Amino acid sequence: MTDAQETASATAAQDPSQDSGPAPVPLLEPREGIPPVTVTDEELARLTADFAHGTGPLAVDAERASGYRYGQRAYLVQLRRQGAGTALIDPVACPDLSELDAALAGTEWVLHAASQDLPCLREIGMRPTRLFDTELAGRLAGFARVGLGAMVENVLGYALEKGHSAVDWSTRPLPEPWLRYAALDVELLVDLRDALEAELERQGKLEWAREEFAAIAAAPTPPPRKDPWRRTSGMHKVRRRRQMAVVRELWQARDTIARKRDVSPGKVLTDTAIVEAALAMPPNARGLSALPGFGQRMGRKQLEQWQGAVERARALPESELPQQSQVPGGPPPPRSWADKDPAAAARLTAARAAVTEHAEELNLPQENLLTPDTVRRLCWEPPEEVSLASVGEALRGLGAREWQISQTAELLFVALTSPE
To answer: In the structure, how many helices (H) and strands (E) does the chain have?
Structure first.
């Protein structure tokens, strides 16, 4: 048993909502030192063989360059497995890890906040069929803080370095302190997994967690977001359709430039500048240059480029202007329910209260017991004949897992039939 596992066995039995205990031990160096970064096909082949012959779960992490580069691709992949140690892989130099993935077929992956890393891992050919998400496990177990550093500290008694999480991981070569940080991120993931599994089993929630993990592993890649320009920060200030068209044109022009340059869109033009231009609709480049985000170091050619987007929006016929809101894919905002459908509003109030109360009894976040969107959709459009079975079937159709249905179907049946 490792030191971390011994600490975990003593800690896991404690109330997970408590952060008391001795001061955490700083974790400063990986057990086997900082491994070299894998950058060639030959090195990758040796690494693949080593990890295929390893045993137990596979700890996995990935580092992206959010805020620096366009998109969410991986710029470093970290692995650790018993018998193979820790590996660092450069996915720019080794962009296809499908053979490594095949060699690890059937192995359980351990990730922290799996949904954040899985998209970029899938891009390079790594697709787990079994996983354990330590962040989600922490939520289900009732931990108040579920970041990796907080979990390692509270469960295992070690303090991880936190200084390099937001650096530009596209930098080459990667500095040694960054590589040390990256290696330490997977150093204790399997130990953390084992401790959380024991805690979930103690609470009677382990099967719930396994259902959640299976759903994450089986989830398809989500389709591209419709009208992503609508998520521009500050969009709530833009009221008129013509102004919305300016936002759309500027957002699309910025996205094209950012993709071509491989830089974060915010480094090309800020959301604040886009909204300011939409609200002001300047008549010319000179007027645009007076707005926040467009003056100072921006050259005339750039100003004319952005002003061209404003002019394209100004020239659009009314029929091509964006609508005030997207075609709804579900119920209206709850604040309007009392006017639109008072009975639905009463159902929603009762359902929310029941689910929230039960989540508190189970010591887990309400959104993990049942997502707010699922509750809203069920209350807005309940089954034609409301019964315990039909409520369960409706929840299943909305994507709820079986453990969630078993915990909430009866509560929701009562809320739908007797909201008073």
So the answer is: 20, 8
Q: Which residues contact 119 (CB under 8 A, 6 or more apart)?
A: 72, 221
Residues 340-376 pLDDT 10s = 999 999 999 999 999 999 999 999 999 999 999 999 9
The CA-based angle 33-37-40, given to 5 degrees, is 145
Q: Which amino acid is at 33?
A: G
Residue 16 confidence (pLDDT): 52
With 0-12 / 13-18 / 19 or more C-beta atoms within 10 angstroms meaning exposed / middle / buried, residue 267 is middle
Q: For residues 79 and 187, is the Cβ–Cβ distance under 8 A?
A: no
Q: What is the mean pLDDT of residues 225-241?
A: 95
C-alpha–C-alpha distance, residues 234 and 332, integer Å:
21
Identity of residue 271: D
Task: Please report how the helices 134-141 and 189-203 are oriented relative to each other, as an axis angle in degrees rounded to 10.
Answer: 30
Name the CATH code of domain 228-320 (choices 3.40.1400.10, 3.40.50.1820, 1.10.150.80, 1.10.10.10).
Answer: 1.10.150.80
At the fourth CATH level, the homologous superfamily of domain 3-218 is Ribonuclease H-like superfamily/Ribonuclease H (3.30.420.10)
Q: Which two tokens stand for residue 24?
A: 């955490």
Provide the 3-class DSSP secondary structure of residue 128: coil
Q: Are 180 and 33 in contact (CB under 8 A)?
A: no
Question: Sheet holding 74-82: strands in order across?
Answer: 37-38, 85-89, 74-82, 55-64, 108-111, 130-133
Of the candidates 333, 316, 329, 246, the residue with the CA atom closest to the CA atom of residue 281:
246
- Neighbouring-strand partners of residue 81: 85
Specify the residue for token string 């936002």: 247
Identify the three-state secondary structure at position 38: strand
Query: Would strands 74-82 and 85-89 be described as parallel, antiparallel, or unpaired?
Result: antiparallel
For the chain, what is the mean pLDDT? Answer: 93
Long-range contacts of range 311-318, CB-CB < 8 Å, 24 or more positions apart? 312/249, 313/242, 313/245, 313/246, 313/248, 313/249, 314/242, 314/246, 314/281, 316/242, 316/245, 318/241
Helix (H) / strand (E) containing 111: strand 108-111
Same fold? 3-218, 228-320: no
Looking at CATH, the fold of the domain delimited by 334-417 is given as DNA polymerase; domain 1 (1.10.150)
Q: Would you call 80 helix, strand, or coil by DSSP?
A: strand
